[in-house]
Amino acid sequence: MTSPTQRVCFQLRVKPELLDEYIRRHSPVWPEMLAEIAASGRRNYSLFLGEGGLLTGYYETDDDEAAQAYLAASEVATRWEAQMAPFFDGLDGRPDQAATPLTEVFNLHTQLVASGAAAATTESTH
C-alpha cells in the first residue's frame, strides 16, 4: 500500500528591503536546483509572496523526511540555501530546513472522500 501524499505548507518572512532581489533570484531558479527539488520527491511546489514580505510555500511529497534529508545532503541545495538565507527575517539555519510547517486544518478532497461525496462530485462534473 502506498502512503498518502503529504501536503506541506510553510511561512517565512523576506526582509522588505530585499524583496525585489528575492523575486529576481527566483526568476528563474537555477536549473540544477530545480532538478534537485524534483529529485528529492517534492512536486507541485509553489511560493506565494504576500504583503510585508510574508512568503508562503506549498509542496506535495510522498515522504517529507526523505525529501528533507535528500536536500540537506545536496551540494547544490546547500549552495542555493546559503545564498537565500540572508533574505529572511528571524531564521536560524537553512531556509529549506528551518521553516516550520503549518498545520493543515481543512482539505476539500479529504473531507469529500470521508463524507462519500467525492464520487458524486466527480460524476456531476463530467
Per-chain topology:
Layout: E1 6-13, H1 19-25, H2 31-40, E2 43-49, E3 54-61, H3 64-73, H4 75-84, H5 95-98, H6 108-115, H7 117-124
Antiparallel strand pairs: 1-3, 2-3
Question: Care to give the gist of this entry?
Answer:
It comes from Microbacterium pullorum. By secondary structure, the chain is of the alpha+beta class.
Descriptive notes:
The chain is α+β, with helices and mostly antiparallel strands and 126 residues long. It has one domain: Alpha-Beta Plaits (2-Layer Sandwich). It is built from 7 helices and 3 strands, in the order βααββααααα. It has a 3-stranded antiparallel sheet, with no helix packed on it. Helix 2 runs antiparallel to helix 3 and helix 6 crosses helix 7. The longest helix is centred in the N-terminal third of the chain and has 10 residues. The protein is globular, with a radius of gyration of 17 Å. The two termini are 29 Å apart.
